[in-house]
Specification:
Blueprint (H helix, E strand, L loop, with lengths): L3 E2 L6 E6 L15 H4 L6 H11 L4 E6 L9 H11 L3 E6 L18 E5 L5 H8 L3 H14 L4 E7 L10 H8 L3 E6 L18 H16 L5 E4 L2 E2 L8 H4 L1 E5 L4 E3 L12 E4 L2 E4 L5 H5 L8 H6 L15 E2 L5 E3 L1
Parallel strand pairs: 2-3, 2-10, 3-4, 4-5, 5-6, 6-7, 7-8
Antiparallel strand pairs: 1-15, 8-15, 9-14, 10-11, 11-12, 12-13
Length: 327
């Protein structure tokens, strides 16, 4: 078993959606303009919000939508570096708009993290859109040529699970520094067609994911992936109780749990007045509930990955979606 990355107190992770604009229409996109806002946040507002969100030991991830569509991304990155964020990552689909690779340096950005959901165009483009595989892989190579550290995110679903075992060869070819395996969340686009269930069950996950993670590690590349299923001797813990994760959207909503993002139950609002707690009922009340299935929000919004025995007891607890394993 790989070591679990435990939630750390006195650290903070900020996932800042600086825009909901995107040039792609991915089948599993979780962005919902009704819940998250439509458009890009102005630069001065972003700077103000970053000042409110930054504390000691704060990691920052800039994402969207497609964050490189924001015309001020380079200024946002440089301001964040001056502000003293511990690390800065840009999550991108690889199109790298506004000539971003020439407007920031490896000193400014710790990682460019590219989304690839297949080892070739036939798998990836069916999920993310025509020509996205070719464009993304070219973007990765361009970033590496300029000296940027690069990671790749592969979102596992029923659409591409069996293709995961082809990723180690591509990852080595692209010379990436870290590989992230993510599991699909039944949110946004994924939740709109209930008959087309893309969730992964315990047997599917355990058959494919740890094995591929081991193969990638043997190439000398670290791998991080969600715990998803707890073993019987493992204790369920919700990140919302013990850690500072903030998911910030253009309309000012700030969530602590990604599974809550389809609903107006955010923990905070951020504005010119700072970061303000929302009154009950919000997601924080769900964090304090204990159920045999583990994660309360998983049970409510995406229960398709839970299996039960003949007595009606869950066969595995679902871990907090922010709990990771590192190979």
């Amino acid at each position: 078993m790989n070591p679990t990355i435990l939630f750390k107190k006195n650290t903070r992770s900020v996932f800042f959606h600086i825009t909901t604009h995107c040039n792609l229409s991915c089948r599993h996109c979780y962005i919902d303009p009704v819940q998250h806002g439509l458009g890009s946040i102005p630069l001065d507002q972003i700077m103000q919000w970053l000042t409110y969100l930054k504390k000691d030991n704060t990691d920052l991830v800039l994402l969207g939508g497609e964050p490189t569509l924001h015309p001020d991304l380079s200024e946002i990155v440089k301001f964040s570096r001056k502000l003293g964020f511990k690390s800065i990552t840009i999550d991108t689909n690889g199109y790298l708009f506004h000539n971003i690779l020439n407007r920031v340096t490896p000193h400014d950005v710790d990682f460019f993290s590219f989304s690839l959901d297949g080892p070739d165009a036939s798998i990836n483009d069916a999920i993310r859109g025509a020509d996205s595989f070719e464009t993304c892989t070219k973007g990765i190579l361009a970033a590496r040529e300029k000296g940027f550290s690069v990671s790749v995110i592969y979102t596992v679903s029923a659409m591409n699970l069996k293709s995961l075992n082809q990723m180690p060869v591509l990852i080595q070819k692209l010379d990436i520094q870290r590989f992230f395996i993510q599991v699909i969340g039944i949110r946004g686009n994924s939740s709109k067609n209930a008959s087309n269930n893309q969730q992964i069950n315990y047997e599917q996950w355990m058959t494919h994911v740890p094995k591929v993670a081991k193969q990638v590690v043997q190439l000398g590349i670290p791998v991080t992936y969600p715990k998803v299923f707890l073993q019987k001797d493992e204790f369920f813990e919700c990140a919302g109780r013990v850690a500072d994760y903030f998911f910030v959207f253009p309309n000012g909503r700030v969530y602590q749990c990604p599974l809550c993002e389809d609903y107006p139950i955010h923990s905070y609002m951020i504005s010119t007045d700072g970061l303000k707690k929302m009154p009950p009922i919000n997601e924080q009340q769900f964090f304090d509930l204990s159920i045999p299935e583990g994660c309360v929000m998983n049970k409510i919004v995406q229960p398709g990955n839970i299996s039960y025995d003949k007595e009606g007891k869950p066969m595995h607890q679902i871990a907090c979606c922010l709990l990771k394993e590192e190979a």
